[in-house]
Design a protein that fits this description.
Length: 266
């Protein structure tokens, strides 16, 4: 039997070793050193920080340590982090940062040295510009979100309480049959379940449908999003056909409960 605890510790150590190698040149040339800090219980163990008197760099493994995420911010308490991917949209590199986790770490370090040396030297001007831009983007996104909500409410959408986040807007659907009636009407239809093999028995609330009753659906096409108290889950179609029934938005579904029916050859 595999010793998963041992493998996890080895993977964390490997990530930190590779990050130290990737950022060694920055530490040498810009006066950074590995930060001494303690993780909180809920934080990602695939994480290491480097700091100078002015700047912090955070490198972490995401998706169970398979990919890398690198952020930079001021060396102050409660700093605002800026992901390298976000910075790349403002200062576009000639070569994108891709590849394995280790290659991503080296790519991010190279990018910082060649496209953000002013930040590494402690110049806050660009970081302040990014902070202002991000604030404006958030305000615009919130304004657009509120406008969309108002439009849906005017169109008859019903607000449903969501225990895991913002209220859910349920689309008005006249004469939506029960599952039992829909099953009798479409006995050959393929049921869609929100089951997650790694977490049996969970409950999820249906946030949003990307397809509606009567629409054609391709196999593996995104059908809807569900939320639990921990994560957002994407549900994709298990077959090609027509969506003939669904469980409406705002409904809490068990992991083994049918949430949609796909009928073929209609």
């Amino acid at each position: 039997m595999k010793n998963f605890h041992k493998e996890h510790i080895e993977a964390v150590n490997h990530f930190k070793t590779e990050a130290r190698k990737a950022f060694a040149h920055i530490c040498l040339n810009f006066g950074f050193k590995e930060a001494d800090y303690s993780l909180q219980e809920y934080q990602n163990p695939f994480q290491i920080q480097f700091e100078s008197p002015q700047i912090r760099i955070l490198a972490e493994g995401i998706h169970w340590g398979m990919n890398a995420n690198v952020c930079i911010g001021k060396n102050i308490s409660e700093t605002e982090w800026f992901n390298i991917g976000y910075i790349c949209r403002q200062r576009i590199p000639t070569v994108p940062i891709t590849g394995s986790q280790t290659e991503q770490l080296y790519g991010c370090a190279y990018y910082l040295e060649n496209y953000a040396a002013d930040i590494l030297n402690g110049d806050y001007i660009f970081l302040d510009q990014l902070a202002l831009k991000r604030k404006q983007e958030k305000e615009e996104a919130e304004k657009a979100r509120q406008t969309a909500i108002e439009q849906k409410l005017m169109a008859g959408y019903i607000p449903i309480h969501n225990p895991y986040g913002d209220p859910i807007l349920r689309k008005p659907r006249l004469n939506l049959h029960s599952y039992e009636i829909a099953r009798l009407k479409f006995p050959q239809a393929i049921p869609i379940y929100p089951e997650n093999p790694s977490e049996p028995g969970y409950k999820a609330i249906i946030d949003k449908w990307f397809k509606d009753i009567g629409e054609h659906v391709e196999e593996t096409e995104l059908l809807c999003e569900l939320s639990t108290d921990k994560v957002m889950i994407e549900i994709r179609s298990a077959a090609t056909g027509k969506l003939v029934w669904l469980l409406p938005e705002g409904t809490i579904a068990q992991s083994d409960q049918c949430i949609a029916l796909i009928a073929g050859n209609l």
